[in-house]
Amino acid sequence: MTHQLPPNVPQFLFDDALIADHRRLTRRWLPATIYPKPILEPTPPHERCLCYLSVLPDPEGGYRMYYWKFDPPAPRRPSRSTISLATSRDGFHWVKPNLGIVEWEGSRDNNIVIASDWHMDGPIAVYDPGSVEPYKMLLFHIDLKDRDASLGIYSYTSVDGLRWKQYPGVRQRAFDRNNVMPQRVNGKWVNFTRPPPEQFPGRRVIHRSESEDFINWSEQELVLAPDLTDEPDVEFYGLSAFERHGWYIGTLEYWNSLDDAVETHLVVSRDTKHWLRTPPRPFIAGTYPWNRRWSICANTGPIIHEEQMVFYFTGRSNGHRWNTAQQDGVIGFASLELDRFCALEGTSGGVLETVPLAWPGGELLLNADSRGNYDRLPMPHQYSGQIEIEVLDAEGKPLPDWSGDNRAIWRGNTHGRMLANHEAIVTWPRDRKLDGLRAQTIRLRFFIKHARLFTFAAQTQKGTFNS
């Protein structure tokens, strides 16, 4: 069957859908790199633990961060939580504005946007620029005096993101971990939530629900749970997801209750309902003292900063079973080179042959790296590897003008500002490019030697589709 290759859309190689044959290759999933210091920390005396966050674009430029502030119980005082706002022009330097909106402990000199007498947890915000009330938020609430009647998620909306309106009543009976996707899926908001403990006693799993108006939510359906590849004490604490080039990429909160540590793992999906588990290794792991036991991503996906994807996450040095005297929580970030979640990697010489592709025209564009030892090289501009590309007909026979001695040879690294070769377009001998095969059905054969291939695309127009 011929695959209709969409123009200007990088093709991830997360599964074998585009692969007809391969030899001596491995699918390599890459972790993000954690910045060594937190970017937002509690401000005494009114903040103790920062946790759960959303990062949204600010219409006036820069970004807004909504986060949950939790103070553990103290003598003669119950635990307290509020929702607060931080702002940034560049996404890396954050300030806590004095909003003067919510009175807290006798003063309005704070950055709080929502406070309640009830216990709150897990604020999840989205920005919907086409709406009259473009800021929307889900919050878990519970009145400790009437737990059964009050437990669930509640909907909030706002015109300016500062003054919020709560819709009355429980919008859905679910527990305290919710993650709404930052954009609608097929016209609907999608929330990944956790059912109340009585439905799945002794384990945490991921349910999905959807809504057209952010107020009325569908019945939950189970979409992700630990299986026999996981250790017996693993539970799924939560799931955030975002769309990227036709795939939905999820950051799964992977809790090993035996070690009491939460890591972030990757999962991927075509429809937000059926998820492909990646190998059980962390995307964001406990690395520094401030995140050694807890790393949970924002629900809003990464921001793109030049050639990097920046993932904001909560870090804690104490685990889920925290000691209230040691309770802590900060916010940090991790980064990944653009779209480099997964590569097909060859060492001494691997071969990848695609299924038949209806070539839409344009140039062959790669996201690739032929440095061989990659970041372990002392000189990152030295390329010990290469990728050779041949073009075949629909049946797999080489086209003489595009194969053999006429194959393309590519070397370089398409991402990284300090590297010598940024050229991502593949050129064949005599300066030929694939636009000459427009509307034909072809196969591509990649010879990958000491190199990684992350994505390929048919670029029919210049632009920023790869950013």
Task: Write up this protein.
The protein is mainly beta. It folds into 2 domains: 3-28 and 341-459, Jelly Rolls; 33-337, Tachylectin-2, Chain A, CATH 2.115.10. It is built from 1 helix and 32 strands. The chain has one helix spanning 147-150; strands at 3-4, 11-12, 19-29, 33-34, 49-57, 63-71, 80-88, 94-95, 112-115, 119-127, 135-142, 152-158, 164-166, 179-180, 189-193, 206-211, 221-224, 234-244, 247-256, 261-269, 275-277, 294-297, 303-305, 308-316, 330-337, 342-354, 357-358, 363-369, 386-393, 408-410, 441-449, 451-459. Strands 1, 2, 3, 26, 27, 28, 29, 30, 31 and 32 form a 10-stranded mixed beta sheet that branches. Strands 4, 22, 23, 24 and 25 form a 5-stranded antiparallel beta sheet that branches. Strands 5, 6, 7, 8 and 9 form a 5-stranded antiparallel beta sheet that branches. The radius of gyration is 24 Å and the shape is elongated. It starts with a strand and ends in an 8-residue tail after the last strand.
Task: Give a short summary of the structure.
This protein has 467 residues and is mainly β.
**pLDDT averaged over residues:** 90
Q: Termini, distance in Å?
A: 30 Å
CATH fold title of the largest domain: Tachylectin-2, Chain A
CATH superfamily of the largest domain: Glycosyl hydrolase domain, family 43
The whole-angstrom Rg is 24 Å
Number of helices in the DSSP assignment? 1
Query: How many runs of DSSP E, i.e. beta strands?
Result: 32
Number of domains: 2
CATH top level of the largest domain is Mainly Beta
